[in-house]
UniProtKB/TrEMBL annotation:
Gene Ontology biological process terms in this record: tetrahydrobiopterin biosynthetic process
This protein's record includes keyword Oxidoreductase: yes
Alphabetical list of Pfam families matching this protein: adh_short
Subcellular locations according to the entry: Cytoplasm
Major location category of this protein: cytoplasm
Source organism: Vicingus serpentipes
Source organism phylogeny: Bacteria, Pseudomonadati, Bacteroidota, Flavobacteriia, Flavobacteriales
GO cellular component: cytoplasm
Recorded GO MF terms: sepiapterin reductase (NADP+) activity
Domain of life per record: Bacteria
SUPFAM superfamilies tied to this protein: NAD(P)-binding Rossmann-fold domains (SSF51735)
Record-given protein name: SDR family NAD(P)-dependent oxidoreductase
Length: 238
């Protein structure tokens, strides 16, 4: 059995990845999000708010008997309060860093601790963003959090080499997807985000990938070893 642990499974990319994986009866998925929208015999849901750090610290991964593959996908994300520094809601700053950076760091830490002695294939995919490599006004917390998850992944990759463990880690940018996050971006104000018109045009021109299309690409990075050579990667590499 292949075991997958995925955050943000109630909507968007996380939901699409989960539904694709569950088409294979040899896959079992553990989902983590505030809502459960999936019912399947090979799916277990943990209700959790990833902004709740005390709850996050208590996450315990189950003992697995002879797994073929164990995969963690830190997918959940939030663009936060789209506004210029000086105008951002402080609680939104905290939440954005918690969800995009601190939560995946804590979950990864617990995952590695739980499964470091398993000899079978172990993969961690941190869903990153091109925003982690570009300065986009209005997205200071989101850009810096995604840049942080890239560096977290790169450091962990170096530690894997030093410790000679059989983990693999990827920080994978999924491209621009037609999800609720894009709706939030399009509903922002131009005085807090100068690129608003460009994102409105993405939708009008049909430039947004579907969650299902992107999920298939993410799963390719899970299943195709040749795509796992570089820690920092993108679905646009396909």
């Amino acid at each position: 059995m292949n075991y997958y642990f995925i955050t943000g499974t109630s909507k968007g990319l996380g939901k699409a990845i989960t539904e694709q994986l569950l088409k294979d009866e040899n896959n079992f998925v553990f989902g983590y999000s505030r809502n459960n929208v999936i019912t399947h015999k090979n799916y277990y849901h943990k209700l959790i708010d990833l902004n709740n750090l005390e709850a996050l610290k208590k996450i315990q991964f189950p003992v697995l008997n002879n797994p073929e593959k164990v995969v963690l996908i830190n997918n959940a994300g939030s663009v936060g309060d789209i506004n210029h520094v000086g105008e951002i809601d402080n609680d939104q700053i905290i939440a954005c860093y918690n969800i995009n950076l601190i939560a995946p760091a804590i979950i990864t830490n617990n995952f590695v601790s739980a499964y470091k002695n398993i000899s079978n294939e172990k993969l961690i995919i941190n869903i990153s963003s091109g925003a982690g490599k570009s300065a986009i006004d209005g997205w200071s917390t989101y850009c810096s959090a995604k840049s942080g998850i890239d560096m977290f992944s790169k450091v962990f990759a170096e530690e894997i080499k030093i410790d000679n463990t059989n983990f693999k880690v990827l920080s994978l940018a999924p491209g621009i997807i037609d999800t609720g996050m894009q709706v939030q971006i399009r509903n922002s104000k131009v005085n807090g985000f100068s690129n608003l018109d460009r994102f409105i045009e993405y939708k009008k021109n049909g430039d947004l990938a579907s969650a299902e299309e992107t999920a298939n690409k993410v799963i390719r990075f899970v299943s195709e070893n040749e795509l796992q050579a570089e820690t920092i990667c993108s679905v646009r590499d396909l």
